[in-house]
Amino acid sequence: MISGGGVVMGDAMAETVALAERLGCPVVNSYLHNDSFPASHPLWCGPLGYQGSKAAMRLISRADVVLALGTRLGPFGTLPQHGLEYWPTEAQDVGICGDAGAAAAAITRRLAGRELACDATRTQRAADIAADKAEWESELDDWTEETDDFSVDMIKQAAAESRRLDAPPPGAARA
User: Fold this and answer.
1) Of 15, 142, 144, 163, which is most buried, counting CB atoms within 10 Å of its CB?
2) pTM of the full predicted structure?
3) What Pfam families does the annotation carry (predicted)?
4) Is there a domain that residue 171 lies in?
């Protein structure tokens, strides 16, 4: 599931959490909407996009179905994105355009008491989510210092060299 700004603007957090829990699906935040799903929830996987979570990006890349809730699926602008029909002229297998909270609540009600195909893989999916998140957290933990040519030490050395070059020669009169 991709949870976006429409979840926040529509005050639909509870409905989104309930739907995610019913499906047992990983939830990623759309770009710049890290507040669209509780980061403390075990199904939360982090944000997509620039400086996002590798766990979120790995999980969404393996999805066979994506439920996008409260998102335009693009971070820039409010006009329809290329290749996405907001008002399709031909019926789609699944296409919902509506309030994020109302839609999530309606889907959750329709799924209540039903046996779903995803129920059979819920335990494995939870383990995969936890493993991807742990791997990303481990990678982040290893980032204790810069290791490229633009490290803090390199910047300090360049600043010291710049001060040395800008300094007046020894014994020069100061203005």
Assistant:
1) 15
2) 0.73
3) TPP_enzyme_M
4) no
